[in-house]
Amino acid sequence: MTGETAAAGRSRQASFRFIFALALMNSLSFGIMIPILPNLIKQFTGGDTAAASEWNVLFATTWGLMQFLCGPVLGLVADRWGRRPVLLISLFGLGVDFLFMAFAPTLWWLFVGRVLNGMTAASFSTANAYLADVTPPAERAKVFGWMSSAFSFGFIFGPAMGGWLGEVDLRLPFLAAAAITLLNFLYGLFVLPESLPPERRATAFNWKKANPLGSLRLLQAHPGLLGLAGVGFLFQLAHMVLPSIFVLYAGYRYGWTPGILGMTFIATGVAGVVVQTMLIGPVVSRIGERNAVLLGALAGAAGFCWYAWAPTGLLYLSAVPVFAFAGFLMPGLQGLMTRRVAPHEQGQLQGANQSLQGVASIFGPLIFGEVFAWSIRQQGFHAPGLAIYLAAALMGLAFLLALATARRAAPLASPAE
Predict the structure, then answer these.
(1) What is the structure's pLDDT at 395?
(2) pLDDT, tens digit, for every residue of 341-358?
(3) What is the DSSP letter of 114?
(4) Is the CB of residue 371 less than 8 Å from the CB of residue 142?
(5) Residue 276's closest CA among 368, 144, 176?
(6) What does residue 173 show for φ and ψ, rounded to 5 degrees?
(7) b/e code 282-292 from CB counts within 10 Å (16+ = b)
Protein backbone atom coordinates (compact mmCIF):
# COMPACT_ATOMS: atom_id res chain seq x y z
CA MET A 1 0.00 0.00 0.00
CA THR A 2 1.49 3.35 -1.03
CA GLY A 3 1.54 6.36 1.26
CA GLU A 4 -1.01 8.10 -0.97
CA THR A 5 -3.37 5.13 -0.84
CA ALA A 6 -3.04 4.85 2.94
CA ALA A 7 -3.78 8.57 3.30
CA ALA A 8 -6.89 8.20 1.13
CA GLY A 9 -8.03 5.30 3.30
CA ARG A 10 -7.58 7.31 6.50
CA SER A 11 -9.49 10.22 4.94
CA ARG A 12 -12.41 7.93 4.04
CA GLN A 13 -12.48 6.50 7.57
CA ALA A 14 -12.49 9.98 9.09
CA SER A 15 -15.28 11.10 6.75
CA PHE A 16 -17.32 8.02 7.63
CA ARG A 17 -16.92 8.69 11.35
CA PHE A 18 -18.10 12.26 10.87
CA ILE A 19 -21.17 11.19 8.90
CA PHE A 20 -22.00 8.32 11.25
CA ALA A 21 -21.90 10.68 14.23
CA LEU A 22 -24.18 13.12 12.40
CA ALA A 23 -26.64 10.33 11.57
CA LEU A 24 -26.55 8.93 15.10
CA MET A 25 -27.30 12.27 16.75
CA ASN A 26 -29.98 12.99 14.18
CA SER A 27 -31.78 9.68 14.74
CA LEU A 28 -31.43 10.08 18.51
CA SER A 29 -33.20 13.45 18.35
CA PHE A 30 -35.98 11.88 16.26
CA GLY A 31 -36.32 9.00 18.72
CA ILE A 32 -36.67 11.38 21.65
CA MET A 33 -39.89 12.85 20.27
CA ILE A 34 -41.62 9.52 19.42
CA PRO A 35 -43.35 8.97 22.79
CA ILE A 36 -43.96 12.68 23.37
CA LEU A 37 -45.35 14.37 20.23
CA PRO A 38 -48.71 12.49 20.22
CA ASN A 39 -49.22 13.43 23.88
CA LEU A 40 -48.39 17.07 23.17
CA ILE A 41 -50.91 17.08 20.32
CA LYS A 42 -53.47 15.47 22.64
CA GLN A 43 -52.82 18.18 25.21
CA PHE A 44 -53.57 20.85 22.61
CA THR A 45 -56.86 19.12 21.71
CA GLY A 46 -58.05 19.12 25.31
CA GLY A 47 -57.50 15.39 25.77
CA ASP A 48 -59.56 14.39 22.71
CA THR A 49 -57.80 11.24 21.44
CA ALA A 50 -59.75 11.10 18.15
CA ALA A 51 -58.93 14.72 17.34
CA ALA A 52 -55.29 14.13 18.27
CA SER A 53 -55.18 11.15 15.91
CA GLU A 54 -56.55 13.29 13.06
CA TRP A 55 -53.96 15.99 13.67
CA ASN A 56 -51.23 13.34 13.87
CA VAL A 57 -52.24 12.00 10.44
CA LEU A 58 -52.26 15.56 9.06
CA PHE A 59 -48.75 16.17 10.40
CA ALA A 60 -47.44 12.89 8.97
CA THR A 61 -48.96 13.30 5.51
CA THR A 62 -47.90 16.96 5.26
CA TRP A 63 -44.33 16.04 6.17
CA GLY A 64 -44.38 13.31 3.52
CA LEU A 65 -45.75 15.74 0.92
CA MET A 66 -42.97 18.24 1.65
CA GLN A 67 -40.41 15.43 1.28
CA PHE A 68 -41.95 14.44 -2.04
CA LEU A 69 -41.79 17.98 -3.41
CA CYS A 70 -38.50 19.22 -1.92
CA GLY A 71 -36.33 16.10 -1.91
CA PRO A 72 -35.36 16.43 -5.61
CA VAL A 73 -34.47 20.11 -5.14
CA LEU A 74 -32.14 19.36 -2.23
CA GLY A 75 -30.60 16.47 -4.15
CA LEU A 76 -29.75 18.75 -7.08
CA VAL A 77 -28.37 21.39 -4.71
CA ALA A 78 -26.09 18.70 -3.26
CA ASP A 79 -24.86 17.78 -6.74
CA ARG A 80 -24.30 21.40 -7.79
CA TRP A 81 -22.84 22.98 -4.64
CA GLY A 82 -21.80 20.01 -2.51
CA ARG A 83 -23.19 17.73 0.20
CA ARG A 84 -22.07 19.80 3.17
CA PRO A 85 -24.40 22.82 2.60
CA VAL A 86 -27.44 20.54 2.28
CA LEU A 87 -26.53 18.64 5.44
CA LEU A 88 -26.25 21.93 7.31
CA ILE A 89 -29.57 23.21 5.94
CA SER A 90 -31.27 19.97 6.95
CA LEU A 91 -29.86 19.97 10.47
CA PHE A 92 -30.74 23.63 11.01
CA GLY A 93 -34.31 23.05 9.78
CA LEU A 94 -34.73 20.08 12.12
CA GLY A 95 -33.38 22.06 15.08
CA VAL A 96 -35.80 24.91 14.39
CA ASP A 97 -38.67 22.41 14.15
CA PHE A 98 -37.82 21.05 17.60
CA LEU A 99 -37.79 24.60 18.98
CA PHE A 100 -41.26 25.11 17.47
CA MET A 101 -42.40 21.98 19.34
CA ALA A 102 -40.84 23.19 22.57
CA PHE A 103 -42.42 26.66 22.51
CA ALA A 104 -45.47 26.44 20.17
CA PRO A 105 -48.53 28.05 21.81
CA THR A 106 -51.00 26.41 19.38
CA LEU A 107 -51.31 23.39 17.10
CA TRP A 108 -50.88 25.58 14.02
CA TRP A 109 -47.42 26.61 15.21
CA LEU A 110 -46.55 22.93 15.50
CA PHE A 111 -47.85 22.48 11.98
CA VAL A 112 -45.59 25.26 10.66
CA GLY A 113 -42.61 23.56 12.26
CA ARG A 114 -43.49 20.24 10.60
CA VAL A 115 -43.79 21.94 7.21
CA LEU A 116 -40.39 23.60 7.63
CA ASN A 117 -38.79 20.32 8.66
CA GLY A 118 -40.37 18.44 5.75
CA MET A 119 -39.00 21.03 3.33
CA THR A 120 -35.44 20.78 4.64
CA ALA A 121 -35.21 17.13 5.81
CA ALA A 122 -32.45 15.56 3.73
CA SER A 123 -29.84 14.54 6.27
CA PHE A 124 -29.97 10.77 5.71
CA SER A 125 -30.31 10.93 1.93
CA THR A 126 -27.49 13.49 1.61
CA ALA A 127 -25.36 11.47 4.02
CA ASN A 128 -25.79 8.47 1.71
CA ALA A 129 -24.65 10.59 -1.24
CA TYR A 130 -21.69 11.77 0.85
CA LEU A 131 -20.66 8.20 1.61
CA ALA A 132 -21.03 7.22 -2.06
CA ASP A 133 -18.55 10.02 -2.84
CA VAL A 134 -15.86 8.74 -0.49
CA THR A 135 -16.39 4.96 -0.49
CA PRO A 136 -15.26 2.46 -3.16
CA PRO A 137 -18.28 0.70 -4.74
CA ALA A 138 -17.36 -2.71 -3.31
CA GLU A 139 -17.50 -1.33 0.26
CA ARG A 140 -20.68 0.73 -0.01
CA ALA A 141 -23.14 -1.93 1.20
CA LYS A 142 -21.12 -2.23 4.42
CA VAL A 143 -21.11 1.52 5.15
CA PHE A 144 -24.79 1.83 4.21
CA GLY A 145 -25.43 -0.94 6.73
CA TRP A 146 -23.64 1.08 9.39
CA MET A 147 -25.77 4.10 8.45
CA SER A 148 -28.88 2.00 9.00
CA SER A 149 -27.50 1.00 12.39
CA ALA A 150 -27.25 4.68 13.36
CA PHE A 151 -30.99 4.88 12.79
CA SER A 152 -31.51 1.76 14.94
CA PHE A 153 -29.29 3.10 17.73
CA GLY A 154 -31.34 6.28 17.84
CA PHE A 155 -34.55 4.32 18.17
CA ILE A 156 -33.13 2.19 20.99
CA PHE A 157 -32.12 5.07 23.23
CA GLY A 158 -34.14 8.03 21.91
CA PRO A 159 -37.65 6.94 23.02
CA ALA A 160 -36.33 5.99 26.48
CA MET A 161 -34.74 9.43 26.86
CA GLY A 162 -37.90 11.09 25.58
CA GLY A 163 -40.10 9.20 28.02
CA TRP A 164 -37.84 9.98 30.97
CA LEU A 165 -37.55 13.68 30.16
CA GLY A 166 -41.27 13.86 29.39
CA GLU A 167 -42.04 12.74 32.92
CA VAL A 168 -40.30 15.93 34.11
CA ASP A 169 -41.93 18.25 31.57
CA LEU A 170 -43.72 17.47 28.31
CA ARG A 171 -41.73 20.14 26.42
CA LEU A 172 -38.31 19.18 27.84
CA PRO A 173 -37.63 16.34 25.32
CA PHE A 174 -38.00 18.79 22.44
CA LEU A 175 -35.51 21.17 24.02
CA ALA A 176 -33.09 18.25 24.42
CA ALA A 177 -33.64 17.19 20.79
CA ALA A 178 -33.12 20.79 19.61
CA ALA A 179 -29.88 21.02 21.59
CA ILE A 180 -28.59 17.73 20.13
CA THR A 181 -29.52 18.73 16.59
CA LEU A 182 -28.06 22.24 16.77
CA LEU A 183 -24.85 20.87 18.31
CA ASN A 184 -24.86 18.49 15.36
CA PHE A 185 -25.20 21.52 13.08
CA LEU A 186 -22.19 23.19 14.70
CA TYR A 187 -20.22 19.96 14.43
CA GLY A 188 -20.94 19.85 10.70
CA LEU A 189 -20.22 23.56 10.30
CA PHE A 190 -16.77 23.45 11.88
CA VAL A 191 -15.58 19.85 11.44
CA LEU A 192 -17.21 18.12 8.47
CA PRO A 193 -15.24 18.42 5.19
CA GLU A 194 -16.90 18.54 1.78
CA SER A 195 -16.94 15.20 -0.04
CA LEU A 196 -17.67 16.33 -3.61
CA PRO A 197 -14.79 18.26 -5.20
CA PRO A 198 -15.70 21.02 -7.67
CA GLU A 199 -14.56 19.05 -10.71
CA ARG A 200 -17.06 16.26 -9.89
CA ARG A 201 -20.08 18.53 -9.38
CA ALA A 202 -22.93 19.18 -11.76
CA THR A 203 -22.07 22.14 -13.98
CA ALA A 204 -25.49 23.79 -13.62
CA PHE A 205 -28.67 23.67 -11.55
CA ASN A 206 -31.43 22.41 -13.85
CA TRP A 207 -34.89 23.38 -12.60
CA LYS A 208 -36.46 20.86 -14.98
CA LYS A 209 -34.94 18.13 -12.83
CA ALA A 210 -35.80 19.83 -9.52
CA ASN A 211 -39.18 18.13 -9.17
CA PRO A 212 -40.45 14.58 -8.64
CA LEU A 213 -41.04 14.02 -12.37
CA GLY A 214 -37.51 15.18 -13.13
CA SER A 215 -36.24 12.67 -10.59
CA LEU A 216 -38.14 9.91 -12.34
CA ARG A 217 -36.40 10.85 -15.59
CA LEU A 218 -33.06 10.21 -13.88
CA LEU A 219 -34.30 6.80 -12.76
CA GLN A 220 -35.41 6.02 -16.30
CA ALA A 221 -32.16 7.22 -17.85
CA HIS A 222 -30.01 4.44 -16.35
CA PRO A 223 -30.66 0.74 -17.03
CA GLY A 224 -32.34 -1.04 -14.15
CA LEU A 225 -32.42 2.01 -11.89
CA LEU A 226 -36.19 2.54 -12.04
CA GLY A 227 -36.83 -1.08 -11.07
CA LEU A 228 -34.42 -0.83 -8.14
CA ALA A 229 -36.12 2.38 -7.02
CA GLY A 230 -39.41 0.47 -7.16
CA VAL A 231 -37.97 -2.16 -4.82
CA GLY A 232 -36.96 0.60 -2.41
CA PHE A 233 -40.40 2.20 -2.60
CA LEU A 234 -42.19 -1.09 -1.85
CA PHE A 235 -39.82 -1.61 1.09
CA GLN A 236 -40.48 1.88 2.46
CA LEU A 237 -44.24 1.55 1.98
CA ALA A 238 -44.37 -1.86 3.70
CA HIS A 239 -42.32 -0.55 6.63
CA MET A 240 -44.86 2.19 7.30
CA VAL A 241 -47.19 -0.45 8.79
CA LEU A 242 -45.59 -0.73 12.22
CA PRO A 243 -45.15 3.02 12.85
CA SER A 244 -48.78 3.44 11.74
CA ILE A 245 -50.52 0.76 13.81
CA PHE A 246 -48.07 -1.06 16.11
CA VAL A 247 -48.99 0.61 19.40
CA LEU A 248 -52.72 0.17 18.79
CA TYR A 249 -52.25 -3.35 17.36
CA ALA A 250 -50.13 -4.63 20.25
CA GLY A 251 -52.46 -3.12 22.83
CA TYR A 252 -55.56 -4.52 21.12
CA ARG A 253 -54.26 -8.03 20.41
CA TYR A 254 -51.81 -8.68 23.25
CA GLY A 255 -52.78 -6.13 25.90
CA TRP A 256 -49.23 -4.76 26.03
CA THR A 257 -48.52 -1.89 28.37
CA PRO A 258 -46.25 1.08 27.53
CA GLY A 259 -43.46 -0.64 29.46
CA ILE A 260 -43.69 -3.80 27.36
CA LEU A 261 -43.86 -1.69 24.20
CA GLY A 262 -40.67 0.10 25.24
CA MET A 263 -38.86 -3.19 25.79
CA THR A 264 -40.07 -4.37 22.39
CA PHE A 265 -38.61 -1.25 20.75
CA ILE A 266 -35.30 -1.98 22.44
CA ALA A 267 -35.29 -5.66 21.41
CA THR A 268 -36.12 -4.78 17.81
CA GLY A 269 -33.47 -2.06 17.73
CA VAL A 270 -30.77 -4.30 19.19
CA ALA A 271 -31.52 -7.07 16.67
CA GLY A 272 -31.30 -4.53 13.86
CA VAL A 273 -27.99 -3.15 15.12
CA VAL A 274 -26.46 -6.63 15.31
CA VAL A 275 -27.40 -7.37 11.71
CA GLN A 276 -26.41 -3.94 10.38
CA THR A 277 -23.04 -3.65 12.12
CA MET A 278 -21.81 -7.25 12.38
CA LEU A 279 -23.34 -9.19 9.50
CA ILE A 280 -23.94 -6.95 6.49
CA GLY A 281 -20.27 -6.32 5.69
CA PRO A 282 -19.00 -9.93 5.73
CA VAL A 283 -22.20 -11.47 4.35
CA VAL A 284 -22.52 -9.05 1.43
CA SER A 285 -18.85 -9.60 0.57
CA ARG A 286 -19.66 -13.32 0.20
CA ILE A 287 -23.12 -13.33 -1.39
CA GLY A 288 -23.09 -9.99 -3.24
CA GLU A 289 -25.41 -6.99 -3.19
CA ARG A 290 -28.13 -8.61 -5.33
CA ASN A 291 -28.49 -11.60 -3.02
CA ALA A 292 -28.46 -9.27 -0.01
CA VAL A 293 -31.48 -7.47 -1.48
CA LEU A 294 -33.27 -10.77 -2.11
CA LEU A 295 -32.45 -12.01 1.40
CA GLY A 296 -33.76 -8.80 2.94
CA ALA A 297 -37.00 -8.94 0.95
CA LEU A 298 -37.64 -12.58 1.89
CA ALA A 299 -36.85 -11.94 5.56
CA GLY A 300 -39.16 -8.92 5.58
CA ALA A 301 -42.02 -10.89 4.02
CA ALA A 302 -41.52 -13.81 6.41
CA GLY A 303 -41.18 -11.55 9.44
CA PHE A 304 -44.33 -9.59 8.62
CA CYS A 305 -46.27 -12.84 8.07
CA TRP A 306 -45.06 -14.11 11.43
CA TYR A 307 -46.00 -10.83 13.14
CA ALA A 308 -49.48 -10.92 11.60
CA TRP A 309 -50.08 -14.57 12.50
CA ALA A 310 -48.66 -14.61 16.05
CA PRO A 311 -51.57 -15.35 18.42
CA THR A 312 -49.53 -14.43 21.52
CA GLY A 313 -47.07 -11.70 22.41
CA LEU A 314 -44.31 -14.23 23.01
CA LEU A 315 -44.70 -15.66 19.52
CA TYR A 316 -44.68 -12.13 18.12
CA LEU A 317 -41.34 -11.44 19.83
CA SER A 318 -39.89 -14.70 18.51
CA ALA A 319 -40.13 -13.23 14.99
CA VAL A 320 -37.86 -10.28 15.82
CA PRO A 321 -34.59 -12.07 14.84
CA VAL A 322 -36.13 -13.16 11.53
CA PHE A 323 -37.40 -9.69 10.71
CA ALA A 324 -34.01 -8.16 11.55
CA PHE A 325 -32.58 -9.72 8.38
CA ALA A 326 -34.79 -7.36 6.38
CA GLY A 327 -31.99 -4.91 7.20
CA PHE A 328 -29.95 -6.44 4.37
CA LEU A 329 -32.23 -4.97 1.71
CA MET A 330 -31.51 -1.24 1.78
CA PRO A 331 -27.67 -1.40 2.10
CA GLY A 332 -27.54 -3.88 -0.79
CA LEU A 333 -29.99 -1.79 -2.79
CA GLN A 334 -28.07 1.44 -2.18
CA GLY A 335 -24.89 -0.33 -3.24
CA LEU A 336 -26.50 -1.40 -6.52
CA MET A 337 -28.11 1.97 -7.21
CA THR A 338 -25.06 4.14 -6.52
CA ARG A 339 -23.08 2.08 -9.05
CA ARG A 340 -25.44 3.19 -11.81
CA VAL A 341 -25.00 6.96 -11.57
CA ALA A 342 -22.03 9.31 -11.87
CA PRO A 343 -20.65 11.33 -8.93
CA HIS A 344 -22.48 14.48 -10.04
CA GLU A 345 -25.79 12.53 -9.97
CA GLN A 346 -25.50 10.90 -6.54
CA GLY A 347 -27.40 13.71 -4.83
CA GLN A 348 -30.12 13.64 -7.47
CA LEU A 349 -30.42 9.88 -6.99
CA GLN A 350 -30.83 10.27 -3.24
CA GLY A 351 -33.31 13.09 -3.81
CA ALA A 352 -35.37 10.78 -6.01
CA ASN A 353 -35.27 8.10 -3.32
CA GLN A 354 -36.31 10.67 -0.74
CA SER A 355 -39.20 11.77 -2.93
CA LEU A 356 -40.41 8.17 -3.17
CA GLN A 357 -40.06 7.86 0.59
CA GLY A 358 -42.26 10.93 0.88
CA VAL A 359 -44.95 9.18 -1.17
CA ALA A 360 -44.72 6.17 1.17
CA SER A 361 -45.03 8.52 4.16
CA ILE A 362 -48.17 10.07 2.67
CA PHE A 363 -50.06 6.92 1.77
CA GLY A 364 -48.67 4.34 4.20
CA PRO A 365 -50.38 5.62 7.37
CA LEU A 366 -53.67 6.09 5.51
CA ILE A 367 -53.64 2.62 3.94
CA PHE A 368 -52.52 0.63 6.96
CA GLY A 369 -54.52 2.65 9.46
CA GLU A 370 -57.74 2.17 7.50
CA VAL A 371 -57.11 -1.54 6.88
CA PHE A 372 -56.44 -2.12 10.58
CA ALA A 373 -59.57 -0.23 11.62
CA TRP A 374 -61.70 -2.16 9.11
CA SER A 375 -60.25 -5.53 10.13
CA ILE A 376 -61.15 -5.18 13.81
CA ARG A 377 -64.65 -3.80 13.15
CA GLN A 378 -65.85 -6.77 11.10
CA GLN A 379 -68.14 -9.14 12.96
CA GLY A 380 -67.76 -12.24 10.78
CA PHE A 381 -64.18 -11.55 9.67
CA HIS A 382 -61.91 -10.75 12.58
CA ALA A 383 -58.31 -10.46 11.38
CA PRO A 384 -56.37 -7.82 13.35
CA GLY A 385 -53.16 -8.77 11.52
CA LEU A 386 -54.58 -8.03 8.06
CA ALA A 387 -52.65 -4.76 7.63
CA ILE A 388 -49.40 -6.56 8.48
CA TYR A 389 -50.22 -9.33 6.00
CA LEU A 390 -50.61 -6.56 3.42
CA ALA A 391 -47.11 -5.32 4.29
CA ALA A 392 -45.84 -8.89 3.83
CA ALA A 393 -47.43 -8.97 0.37
CA LEU A 394 -45.65 -5.73 -0.54
CA MET A 395 -42.34 -7.26 0.54
CA GLY A 396 -43.14 -10.29 -1.61
CA LEU A 397 -43.65 -7.95 -4.59
CA ALA A 398 -40.33 -6.28 -3.73
CA PHE A 399 -38.65 -9.70 -3.87
CA LEU A 400 -40.13 -10.47 -7.31
CA LEU A 401 -39.16 -7.04 -8.66
CA ALA A 402 -35.64 -7.40 -7.25
CA LEU A 403 -35.38 -10.84 -8.83
CA ALA A 404 -36.01 -9.21 -12.22
CA THR A 405 -34.02 -5.99 -11.84
CA ALA A 406 -31.32 -6.34 -9.17
CA ARG A 407 -28.30 -6.92 -11.36
CA ARG A 408 -24.84 -5.67 -10.46
CA ALA A 409 -23.48 -3.00 -12.76
CA ALA A 410 -19.99 -1.60 -13.20
CA PRO A 411 -19.77 1.83 -11.52
CA LEU A 412 -19.88 4.81 -13.88
CA ALA A 413 -17.07 6.39 -11.92
CA SER A 414 -15.11 5.55 -8.82
CA PRO A 415 -15.11 7.74 -5.74
CA ALA A 416 -12.18 10.04 -5.17
CA GLU A 417 -9.07 7.96 -5.36
Answers:
(1) 97
(2) 887 777 778 777 777 887
(3) H
(4) no
(5) 144
(6) -60, -35
(7) ebbeeebbbbb
Contact between 107 and 41 (Cβ < 8 Å)? yes
Distance CA(239)–CA(41), nearest Å, equals: 24
* pLDDT at residue 215, as a whole number: 67
Are 274 and 282 in contact by the 8 Å Cβ rule? The answer is no
Residues 144, 334: contact at Cβ < 8 Å?
A: yes
Name the residue type at position 288: G
Cβ-in-10-Å burial (0-12, 13-18, 19+) of 216 comes to middle
Per-residue confidence band for 416, with pLDDT thresholds at 50, 70 and 90: very low
- The per-residue pLDDT for 302 is 97
Q: Which amino acid is at 368?
A: F
Q: Are 148 and 265 in contact (CB under 8 A)?
A: no
3-state secondary structure of 108: helix
- Residues 6 or more apart whose CB falls under 8 angstroms from that of 377 comprise none
What torsion, rounded to 10 degrees, do the Cα atoms 366, 326, 285, 84 define? 40
**Under CATH, domain 3-190+224-405 is a member of which superfamily?**
MFS general substrate transporter like domains (1.20.1250.20)
DSSP state of 327: G
Domain parsing of the chain, residue ranges? 3-190+224-405
Q: Which helix (H) or strand (E) holds 127?
A: helix 123-134
User: How far apart are alpha carbons 86 and 91 in whole angstroms?
Assistant: 9
Interval 308-329 mean pLDDT: 94
CA 336-67-25 angle, to 5 degrees, is 75
Q: For the beta carbon of residue 208, count every other beta carbon within 10 angstroms.
A: 8
State the DSSP string of 200-245. GS-SS--GGGSSHHHHHHHHHHSTTHHHHHHHHHHHHHHTTHHHHH
Question: What is the pLDDT of the chain when averaged over all its residues?
Answer: 81
Amino acid at 416: A
Nearest to 13 by CA among 98, 131, 117, 109: 131
User: Rounded to the nearest 5°, which phi and psi values hold at 60?
Assistant: -65, -45
Which tens digits make up the pLDDT trace of 253-262?
Answer: 998 876 787 7
Say which residue, 12 or 361, is predicted with more confidence: 361
CB–CB of 358/64 below 8 Å?
A: yes
